Amino acid sequence: MRTEDLIGDLATELRPVRRLPSPAAQAALWLGLAVVVIAIAVALHGLRHDLAARMLLPHEVAQWLASVATGVAAAFAAAMLARPDRNWRWALLPLPPLLAWGLSLGWGCLADLARMGPEALTLGTSWGCLRFIILLGAPLTALQLWLLRHAGPLRPMPVLLLGGLASAALCSAGLSLFHHLDAAVMVLLWHGGATAVLVLLGWLLGRPLLLRAPRLP
Amino acid sequence: MAAAQAGDRRAYDALLRACLPLLRGIARRRILNPAEAEDAVQDALLTIHQLRHSYDPARPIRPWLVAITERRAIDRLRRHGRRAGRETSIEDFGETLAAPGANTGEARVAATELRAAVAELPPAQRTALGLAKLEDLSLAEASARSGMSVGALKVATHRAVKALRRRLGVED
Q: For residue B129, is it within any domain?
């Protein structure tokens, strides 16, 4: 088929479309939905008994805020990258809060080590954390992909990975509100680990699900 | 593009035709093969059509078009690279029979004919041809080996080649 004929065909079958909202509005919409879903999940579990005391510790507050900031920044970056003409450097936006979050978790481990000695590094299992982040994070990632499905023919993978990161970071923040993990190393392992697992799942499953070449109309 | 989003076919047609040279330029810069580059342009047009609701009229359209075309051209190149690794161009083979011996039939027939023709030559000519042309000896060596004089060898070789030519239907 000649390209000029293709243009003719495309123009002939043109239908009016509704413009997408701005990336910021899309990110805000997803964040709103995510917060509602996570708030419901947290309410079902009940807030942790020592939350008020915890929130007085500047280190804990900083860590919690860093995870929230990671989620917000990743959601915004995903919405930006879903547009063809936006710079890929938006993908770097969530890196500073992510770094701060990781550092604060690592610092927490060191502080525990100084306070409690080697037993601070005793590893336990907390499948609950993993389950919560993945079971709640996966549908949230899917929701974001559906909102940003126009990224499919362009750069689906970065959008998917950022979506997974945003979901996991927000779920981790929600989890911290009701789940009790004393040792920071456990938080690092189970929250950070669950985030990594979710992003990895997105990486593995996203390609077959998302990468679609455009078809003739 | 804003008019196209609202459904104005004429504006859409004009826009796509106007940006066609730009899209072709991008695709050709990336892809050497002109047909492949044109396919990438068509991919890009389809993607532009598919994503036309994601364009924000407040922003310039050029980067939007360029980004989509670059992406489609790179996709084409990747697909082409993967395919090129698996396939071999068919023009490289005159014959495509599976058994290795089957494709050398013509050469074997020619060799048999040649051998039969050589066998029918007079013995002196056959010896001269074998020593001078097949074993590639110098005339002096061939003369020593066969006991024929250099002059006789020259004549016999010449006649043998001439006879073979006649026999195999090659014109002088």
A: yes
CATH number, domain of B11, equals 1.10.1740.10
Rounded to the nearest angstrom, the minimum Cα separation between B11 and chain A is 9
Q: Are both B62 and B116 inside the same structural domain?
A: no
Residue B9 contacts A, CB cutoff 8 Å = yes
Interface contact flag, B41 A20, Cβ < 8 Å: no
| B95 assigned to some structural domain | no
Domain of residue B142: give its range: 106-168
- The verdict on residue B59 lying in a domain is yes
B63 contacts in chain A (CB < 8 Å): 84-85
Cα separation of B104 and A182, whole Å? 80
3-state secondary structure of A22: coil
Specify the number of domains making up chain B: 2
Query: Which of A20-34, A196-210, B52-66, B138-152 is least confident?
Result: A196-210
Which of B25, B53, B85 terminates a domain? The answer is B85
Q: Is the pLDDT of residue A116 over 50?
A: yes
- Give tens-digit pLDDT for A62-89: 888 998 999 999 999 998 988 888 888 8
Among residues B45, B43, B41, B55, which one has the least CA distance to residue B4?
Answer: B55
Task: Please check whether residues B64 and B118 belong to one and the same domain.
Answer: no
B83 touching A (Cβ < 8 Å): no
Q: Which ipTM did the prediction report?
A: 0.71
- For residue A154, list chain B residues with Cβ-Cβ distance below 8 A: 47, 51, 67-68, 71
A3, A11, A150: residue with CB nearest B41: A3
Q: Exposed/middle/buried for A73, CB within 10 Å: 0-12, 13-18, 19+?
A: buried
Question: What sign does the CA torsion over B74, B75, B76, B79 have?
Answer: positive
Nearest beta carbon to residue A85 from set B4, B10, B64? B64
